[in-house]
Amino acid sequence: xxxxxxxxxxxxxxxxxxxxxxxxxxxxxxxxxxxxxxxxxxxxxxxxxxxxxxxxxxxxxxxxxxxxxxxxxxxxxxxxxxxxxxxxxxxxxxxxxxxxxxxxxxxxxxxxxxxxxxxxxxxxxxxxxxxxxxxxxxxxxxxxxxxxxxxxxxxxxxxxxxxxxxxxxxxxxxxxxxxxxxxxxxxxxxxxxxxxxxxxxxxxxxxxxxxxxxxxxxxxxxxxxxxxxxxxxxxxxxxxxxxxxxxxxxxxxxxxxxxxxxxxxxxxxxxxxxxxxxxxxxxxxxxxxxxxxxxxxxxxxxxxxxxxxxxxxxxxxxxxxxxxxxxxxxxxxxxxxxxxxxxxxxxxxxxxxxxxxxxxxxxxxxxxxxxxxxxxxxxxxxxxxxxxxxxxxxxxxxxxxxxxxxxxxxxxxxxxxxxxxxxxxxxxxxxxxxxxxxxxxxxxxxxxxx
Length: 450
What we know:
Blueprint: E1 2-6, E2 9-13, E3 31-34, H1 42-64, H2 73-80, H3 87-94, E4 97-100, E5 103-108, E6 111-117, H4 123-129, E7 135-138, H5 142-153, E8 158-161, H6 167-174, E9 183-184, H7 186-192, E10 195-198, H8 202-212, E11 221-224, H9 228-231, H10 233-236, E12 245-251, H11 255-263, E13 268-276, H12 282-292, E14 295-300, H13 303-315, H14 320-335, H15 340-362, H16 364-369, H17 373-402, H18 405-414, H19 419-431, H20 434-444
Parallel strand pairs: 7-8, 7-10, 8-9, 10-11, 11-12, 13-14
Antiparallel strand pairs: 1-2, 2-3, 4-5, 5-6, 6-14, 12-13
Helix pairs in contact: 5-11, 13-17, 14-15, 15-20
């Protein structure tokens, strides 16, 4: 058996240990957790951690992946959302979920919401629903790439519209899109399409709108994956035609994640919304599109709520806030004599590789329960102080989003002629920060990178 230090706990696992806490082992695995004291040899812990970490991470990924029969890809996709559960698990789940036709009502911490699953749209139904449609995907960036390939793999009639011979055109060709067959310039793609998927960047949507809008004729459907442009129309000038359906499907992850989860037979969580329903069928079409692009389940929102929560989350816990906390903690450790490797491991590596996966798997209490009394007591106590300190910052952030200040800042920055150069300069500054240079060295020592 090997030992590993995880979240303040000493974990001993054999072969395929499926996690860093209790009750996470396969039938062939033995896992035990022992609290330890500072008197234990740190050298022994570190050496054991290096031996065991790879097996722990690999097994955790396997534990979170659905087990499906490999008949066809589509059957795997459909089966993945129907994992087998034990009777006790079914009883627990039934207290949260009530099935209704076409949707489930789920109790989210006391608020009941409807969620829509891909089970409601098996592959044959999906093909029949879109049999007369041409899905014109405009833009081939992160979301365009992921959603486009998923639509194509689902057998739908999808075409890509980008600037000829540009970087996106070349990327699309590398992904198997064929000029003149399913790869066109933007104008031609829009003319051919019945569902126009505007997946250009927010700045590009604003810039190209005067050219695109006249081609959005009656009978077409306009699709977004972000509510930015129509919600902040005063800044973006994206005023949608009043005689077409306008819908949104917003995957909760990058285009790369949308693609990866689809290929794994899982599916990403997405929100959907209707901005304008001329035909009376906009909501149904939005849900169908959500399944078609690779969603595992969808929940309903509005364009406004989607863009507010998205901009707020990105600037907060998802990216900006967590980056700021990483930097603050790392700097204090360094100022108090800790080495770069120790500071990075205690700030970023343990968080991303050991603890955050546990939160994602079963919640914050699950992570706390896996840790020593010393670790959990201090963490719970300090969480209250962090909340008190940070909530005013988050309130300011939300108001900045809602008022349009964040939108205005984004538009001004993205419209600069030196935008790409300025962005690369910022990225270079981040890459050269000591914390991330130390991180590069730490990652190189992971067993899978040896």
